[in-house]
Amino acid sequence: MKGPLFYSKILLFGEYGIIRDSKGLSIPYNFYNGALKLSDNHTEQAKASNASLKRFATYLEGLDSDLVIFNTSKLHSDLEEGMYFDSSIPQGYGVGSSGALVAAIYDKYASDKITVLENLTREKLLKLKAIFSAMESFFHGKSSGLDPLNSYLSLPILINSKDNIEATGIPSQKTEGKGAVFLIDSGIVGETAPMVSIFMENMKNEGFRSMLKDQFIKHTDACVDDFLKGDVKSLFKNTKQLSKVVLNNFKPMIPKQFHELWKKGLDTNEYYLKLCGSGGGGYILGFTEDIDKARKALVGQKLEVVYNF
């Protein structure tokens, strides 16, 4: 048995801001994926995944039955037979490893599930988001539910605010284009919870709160609008501002060895860096108007292009 594939995701814009109602834009990233598998695979990885899924299955039984009901007896019996989540999605990299797992479990074991083939009204999207938020909180302590939603639907998701989300279309890629969104592998695994707690601690400071509202959210919202409209010139202007705000105010979330590279991009305009997810490690997102120049400037770094302008 092998279940359907669920893909990783990239939150292009909105990290931290969506906690405070900024806009956000999340896109599926098909380079990585995961699926539930039943097989005689007894690798250490499969065993660890199976053990973790057993704990998750117990957690799911405690969820509000008005929100979602699972066929837990089927889930438990599959787990007894050695089911595990076979995934190429790196953990702690901000590309939604737990999101894909949550989507796969919901898809296979939820009763009365909302399917991708239905007319996805805003109410249905919000209900799915609430279910996924409750499920994924097992992994993160507190989850918005957006990662699994993206994985489950395999569609770009536009977040207008906490209670207003919609599946959206993004401008088609120009494969010959020099402009690009890319990922850099920091080589460090990032932990979401400690980064979020630093952010929440900073939120007690009035100066930080006003920076978030007047600068961070303002530029994030503008970037989302520019990207969806395909206004590349304005997008790079706003991405530069966003990159600068993050360097000045989110230093703990940027791995130390990237502080100089971050600043270099702002000084030369050859690329701009931003957080991918909560930061602290994992991937860093980059935006450039000329991918060849960016590759030269970032020589020695592993770059993966995810979108071409």
Written account of the structure:
InterPro entries: GHMP_kinase_C_sf, GHMP_kinase_N_dom, Ribosomal_Su5_D2-typ_SF, Ribsml_uS5_D2-typ_fold_subgr. It holds the Pfam family GHMP_kinases_N. Keywords: ATP-binding, Kinase, Nucleotide-binding, Transferase. The protein has 309 residues and is of the alpha+beta class. The protein has two domains: 162 residues, Ribosomal Protein S5, domain 2; 129 residues, 2-Layer Sandwich (Alpha-Beta Plaits). Helices cover 44% and strands 18% of the residues. The protein contains ten helices and nine strands. Strands 1, 2, 3, 4 and 5 form a five-stranded antiparallel sheet that branches.
What brief labels describe this structure?
309 residues; alpha+beta; Ribsml_uS5_D2-typ_fold_subgr; Alpha-Beta Plaits; Ribosomal Protein S5, domain 2; single chain; globular; 2 domains; transferase; 44% helix; 5-stranded antiparallel β-sheet; 10 helices; 4-stranded antiparallel β-sheet
